[in-house]
Design a protein that fits this description.
Order of helices and strands of chain A: EEEHEHEHHEEEEHEHEHHHEEEHEEH
Number of helices of chain A: 11
CATH superfamily of the largest domain in chain A: L-amino peptidase D-ALA esterase/amidase
Number of strands of chain A: 16
Distance between the termini of chain A: 44 Å
Largest sheet of chain A: 10 strands, mixed
CATH topology of the largest domain in chain A: L-amino peptidase D-ALA esterase/amidase
Structural class of chain A: alpha+beta
Oligomer: homodimer
Chain lengths: 406, 406
């Protein structure tokens, strides 16, 4: 497994483009397209929010098809809570993009991010599409990563290579999302995080779906910026087979190697999201171990990752570990506090339910002053572990979200 | 039902006191006592956090007894995550207070609030107790309300009178809690909100417990400042019978009148908590109606009340109703967005899943500039309703919680 440069267009046969369609008030890039030169199998995971944006509904419907070749994405407008007009506009985006690319609309997937409850300016999309389609290229992969940004401060791309049999297989991804970020996605269900992954692996649609499910569980679905689950969260993967590896059609060793690589890509992208959370100054990794089950470990880790109080303490470099204890206890998971240990980085704070005799607050405070914070909770009650990622909660988060006007 | 002045000592036979024991670094009042001149029946509801503070465990144990006569409370130290020492100290608080008052320790209930994970300075408690016990009085009811404050900016007291038969019955309360505030309490289980209610009603212990359960469900358990459930939340009620009403021992009309009054007291106290939330500039009331069940309505209302994004928008007076839609959809309750209406105060924003044709953003913004914000969500799917209370999320909240040092 080798990390390489680039993102979505690193795998063979993928082209991209990103343009300014005038949807964003800022005038920045806001319409983008990912295109596979050959038909690809695709899978998608979407928010489990009851109020799903129109593009989510359209993509879910289109994913019932066998193969796909393009994803059209706009930022600046979520196309959510727009009633029937919203669905018509999302379908229109797909069919207009399809027409330009010579594809049936059902081969085109759709995603949107931005403000909820405002009509998508489909006429702006229509006007910008021909230039976008004509300008598709390998090197514009990073334009894609730029054009999906909203309050993101940096582009988020990642790529790696693995070897399956005699073939070199590449997986590349791009993602966005730094607020309203608390995805809980499922394949065949629904997260405004947007993540796009492209690979030239040859794999069946069914195996691709299963691999994606495994990958999101311990990556995107373990990230929180603010605990607010979006109406638009979507994670797409397209696999076009151009690597020429022996097609993965069962859970053999190639599936396991591919899935391990996909998990790595997804986890790296998830960390980029948390680290760039709105107003964030620090990336926080919370590992829970010694849990009775992975599900328990995930619940405790995720609950800690959404504690406003802890996130404020981390912003202030205050090693207030009591807030970790309180959050863990509020997770709904049954455990015994008298067996619980808590570490702030390398510093043991809680030992079997009471303050560790060796705890040095100033040492912990120094550690909390860094920009990568690691918290470990050991429940000492079982074999299972999970990691969650979040960021600190700063005054800037409040500024961004009280000024970000409708 | 008449609202009257005063708080905990408004009912007959209750005395209180509050002193400076030196537990708080600020040097403010931090030790307080509520005393009934005659034995009272008592009930308590406590946090459902797995990590329960020692005073919670001790109070739960003592509440197994038939009658109680005092509650000793310290602020500045949560006495949580202190292992066995914590429990010994909490018991010590009860027994030392009991000794001075001539009561068995099991007749004394205990509560603590403050920093987690630091040993309770029991010697300071012991030193201050004699003065506290000697100074008990009717007029010191408000000292009690003062001495339980941590980051609260104002004392929270409320009292009212009802008539049962020929007797005038008084219910008075005091509470604190403006951060780590997301109680979910149950009687015989466990919320650092602290609420204390005293009444001179004559009522059986069993009926008092049931009445308290009904009252907290639609009051304290529907308040959120930050979504962080405490290890120490406790709500106590003592009923000493001195009003002389016919003893309430079944769910007849007197029970219903008493419970209606208790619900009113608890709801008024709950609103005081939310309105004084850390850094709060506005009190927010969220009403969900048209739900299939009360439980559904409660879940949707509570989920909306914990949306950081919505709370930031309210701080900025931004009528960003899309954040209400997203939060409602993330509640886990099944409903159809195409039937959903949302009102910002009197202004209809969402109508059957799409923006209301009559929506005037500037009108909504003017409403959001007030300091009491009312949001109504109508799911149009059933007969049930519930209300939740929260406050806006300000830069000051972050300042308070990143500076509030361990």
């Amino acid at each position: 497994m080798i990390t390489i440069r680039g993102g979505l267009t690193a795998p063979k046969g993928f082209l991209a483009g990103g343009v300014k369609a005038g949807i964003k008030v800022s005038g920045r890039k806001d319409l983008t397209l990912l295109y596979s030169e050959v038909p690809a199998v695709a899978a998608g995971a979407f928010t489990t929010n009851r109020c799903k944006a129109s593009p989510v509904k359209v993509s879910q419907m289109h994913l019932k098809g066998k193969t796909h070749q393009a994803i059209i994405v706009n930022s600046g407008n979520a196309n959510c809570a727009n009633g029937r007009t919203g669905e018509k506009d999302a379908l229109d985006m797909a069919s207009k993009a399809g027409k330009l690319l010579g594809l049936d609309k059902r081969m085109v997937l759709v995603a949107s991010t931005g403000i909820i409850g405002r009509k998508l300016p489909i006429e702006k999309v229509a006007k910008a599409l021909p230039g976008l389609a004509a300008g598709l290229s390998k090197k514009a992969g990073s334009d894609f990563a730029e054009a999906i940004m909203t309050t993101d401060t940096k582009k988020k791309e990642f790529a790696l290579e693995i070897t399956l049999g005699d073939s070199s297989v590449t997986i590349g991804g791009a993602c966005k999302g730094v607020g309203m970020l608390y995805p809980n996605m499922k394949t065949d269900k629904h997260a405004t995080m947007l993540a796009f992954i492209a690979t030239d692996a040859s794999i069946s649609k069914r195996m691709l779906e299963e691999s994606l499910d495994e990958a999101i569980l311990n990556s995107f679905n373990m990230v929180s910026v603010d605990g607010d689950m979006s109406t638009n969260d979507s994670c797409f993967i397209m696999a076009n087979g151009l690597a020429g590896n022996k097609r993965i059609s069962n859970k053999g060793s190639d599936y396991k190697k591919f899935t391990a690589a996909l998990k790595y890509v997804a986890a790296e992208m998830a960390k980029m999201l948390a680290g760039d959370g709105e107003g964030a100054t620090k990336l926080v990794e919370i590992e829970v171990k010694g849990a009775k089950s992975v599900d328990d470990a995930r619940k405790v880790a995720r609950k800690i990752s959404t504690s406003n109080l802890l996130k404020c303490a981390i912003f202030g470099a205050d090693p207030n570990w009591g807030r970790i204890v309180a959050a863990a206890g509020a997770s709904g998971v049954e455990f015994d506090i008298d067996r619980m240990d808590v570490y702030l980085g390398p510093v043991k704070a809680l030992s079997r339910g009471a303050i560790a005799k060796t705890f040095e607050k100033e040492k912990a405070r120094r550690f909390f002053k860094g920009n990568k914070i690691r918290i470990t909770v050991d429940l000492n009650s079982g074999p299972s572990a999970a990691k969650a990622w979040t960021c600190d909660l700063s005054k800037e988060y409040v500024a961004i979200n009280s000024d970000y006007s409708t």
